[in-house]
Amino acid sequence: MNLVVADGGFDAQRDSECQEELAQKLILHEFATALQLLDVDGTLVLKLFGCQTESIRMAMRSMFDLFNSLEMTKPISSRPASSERYVILEGFKGLPAQWEGGQNWINNVLIGRCLQRDLSFYTSSVDHYLDQFDSDMLVLNLKACFAILSHLERKNAAKELCQSKREEKNYFPSMGGRNRDIDVKLYRHAWQLFI
Ligand SMILES: C[S@@+](CC[C@H](N)C(=O)[O-])C[C@H]1O[C@@H](n2cnc3c(N)ncnc32)[C@H](O)[C@@H]1O
Question: For 50-68, what is each residue's pLDDT tens digit?
């Protein structure tokens, strides 16, 4: 195949704080399946939830060996507060001569024996790039959470102003509308935005 896409996810992992850990097994199998399916020069687009665990990090280093280019992206249509992001791998170089199947590749990833060069090469190239991307995404997540909260605060303030003007003019009583307001402080606390 010229193009393989993998967008796997499951309910137990959706709202968890350790999405990357929970999705590791699925992601490693998606990588292994894609490697078996792709033609030389093919492209793989695969959803990830972070690259901090040792197995995902090792898989990404191996992908760096097996493709001509590796790029991370967070599409505009992807919810900013979610940790999902995609790796785009272009120019598949083909399976290495010593390839012994997808499960064997996974085993080698897990014991850190899937690389074609010294580890130091990857730490200064692919690891550096992945860490930078993680940090950029964290900033994006925080900005998105703050933007959502300040929008809600402005909305609440405008509603309260409107309500008190109405009450001043004695048009309608408040009808208990305040109960339906979103408590922005509760959200700020739940999202642990103490900065
Ligand atoms: C975000 S959805 C993907 C939606 C898909 N891209 C589409 O447009 O229909 C994630 C999918 O991964 C599937 N999934 C989760 N774990 C899986 C597994 N171990 N094997 C196969 N599919 C799996 C789920 O059933 C779910 O349909």
Answer: 999 999 999 999 999 999 9
